[in-house]
Amino acid sequence: MSEVQSVSTLPGTETTTNEEITGQTEDDVTSPTSSSTGIELVKEQKECSSIQGETSSAEGTEITTTKERTQFPYFKVGVVEDRNKRYRRSMEDAHCYFYDFAGVEGQGFFAIFDGHAGKQAAEWCGNHFHETFQEVLEKNPTLPIPEVFNLTFAEADQRLNESAGKHSGCTAIAALVRTDICDECNESEGTEIVARNGTDSAKKTYKRSLYTANVGDARAVLCRDGVAKRLSYDHKGSDVQEAKRVVDAGGFVLNNRVNGVLAVTRSLGDCSMKGCVVGAPYTTETALTEKDTFLILACDGLWDVCSDQEAVDLVKDVMDPQVASEKLLEYALQNFSMDNLSSWSRRMRAAAHMNDLIWHE
């Protein structure tokens, strides 16, 4: 099996490949310390056969959910959220995820949104971002997925700026997993599975691709052969490249904050700062192989107190994505995260590859 081939794009920069997909290394990131209390979680279980997906709004409840589909090429998903009530009066995170997204078997769509200056932007995205993505995809069926993400973020940003809650904003991380069945794929292009139905058997090759897009400091981290690979870019005032873009646009950066106010340099919403704070995402495209064992999506509530590799090491031996999500949440709280916390996880099965995920908001 060949190495994973990846492509990433950041508006205004050149396309990069392979190891450059990580954007920034962990050494580029400084993690402030904060404090917290324990977890209050309500568990919800649903029948696997009835689940197609879920959206959440920023309502401030503590909830743990676990969703799974057991038939290949479907996957398990573990999700946890916590308001972090000692430090946060409300929950401003939201999420959505869907199996068989847009009616395509084996396609999954996942996104989390970390709100600021109110919950309206994150709440709108939790309910409507996937709809916007699907609309763009249906209008442009031959467009590369990274370009679909670019158009989706632009459209979502415009709709938020026209809404009643336009002065709130949110960071975002979104991922799309696609499964293509190839009758004549090369061995290096996919995973060969023998499907048996009664006395009949047939060989099919499943080719899996992962696409991500983000604005702000929400991250996607892929575990590849035990090593953390970042598939996102932290758009923050402390980043030299982003700070220069803000200044060139007529703004300034004070104490690593745009115009002395906002810590992130890219977001959805934030209408009053749109001249400097843009909604253009960083995107990646990754061909998945058996070396890719799980994916973590998380907002900064986790990453403020945990490096990419630490997160991977914490859960790389945990087979249940729900347990993995809870473990990351507990780690963040025990290490004094002061933000809302949510976790989403997806762990790959040995035969299927990339079949489970870990989600954190």
Keywords summarizing the entry:
361 residues, alpha+beta, Phosphatase 2c, domain 1, 10-stranded antiparallel β-sheet, 8-stranded mixed β-sheet, 33% strand, disordered N terminus, disordered C terminus, PPM-type-like_dom_sf, hydrolase, protein phosphatase
DSSP helix count? 6
- Overall shape: it is globular
Indicate the CATH architecture: 4-Layer Sandwich
The level 1 CATH classification is Alpha Beta
- Structural class category: alpha+beta
CATH superfamily: PPM-type phosphatase domain
Helix-strand topology string: EEEEEEEEHHEEEEEHEEEEEHHHEE
Mean of residue pLDDT?
A: 73
How many domains? The number is 1
Rg value? 19 Å
Proportion in helices: 10-25%
CATH topology: Phosphatase 2c, domain 1
Total beta strand runs:
20
Report the span from N to C terminus. 33 Å
Low-confidence stretches: 1-23, 25-51, 58-73, 191-201, 338-344, 347-361
Task: Provide the β-strand percentage band.
Answer: 25-35%
Largest sheet: 10 strands, antiparallel
Pfam families: PP2C
Family: Belongs to the PP2C family.
Keywords: Hydrolase, Metal-binding, Protein phosphatase
GO molecular function: metal ion binding; protein serine/threonine phosphatase activity
